[in-house]
Design goal:
The protein has helices at about 55-70, 85-95, and strands at about 1-10, 15-20, 40, 45-50, 75, 80-85. The protein is an alpha/beta fold and about 100 residues long. The protein has one domain: Anthopleurin-A, CATH 2.20.20. Strands 1, 2, 3, 4, 5 and 6 form a six-stranded mixed β-sheet that branches. The protein is globular, with a radius of gyration of 12 Å. About 20% of the residues are buried.
């Protein structure tokens, strides 16, 4: 299933936070089963990589974990919000093929 990314931001620890939009009542609380150190923050509805990697590496890890564990494809739209991210990081993420 294609899942739209509503927002991407960096938290205070430098971790990329990816917030998907779901059509129904669902979440990614079992993403930890993928064993790639990707986690789901239930209160904010965001995915994040626990390891401090480059933003692109974090993003790729999150996207791949979701695809493997849930069969979902995270995707950008023109409405995806990039919050507090430098333009060069936004450009790299957009070029990632998602």
């Amino acid at each position: 299933m294609e899942i739209v990314i509503q927002q991407i931001r960096l938290d205070s620890d430098g971790r990329l936070r990816v917030q998907p939009v779901f059509a129904g009542p669902t979440d990614y609380k079992y993403i930890w089963r993928d064993a790639t150190n990707v986690a789901w923050h239930e209160a904010s509805g965001e995915l994040y990589a626990r390891d401090l990697l480059t933003p692109l590496e974090q993003f790729n890890r999150i996207v791949r974990a979701v695809a493997r564990e849930y069969g979902d494809r995270l995707t950008f739209t023109s409405a995806t919000a990039f919050v507090d991210l430098p333009g060069d990081i936004i450009a790299v993420l957009r070029k990632s093929g998602v």
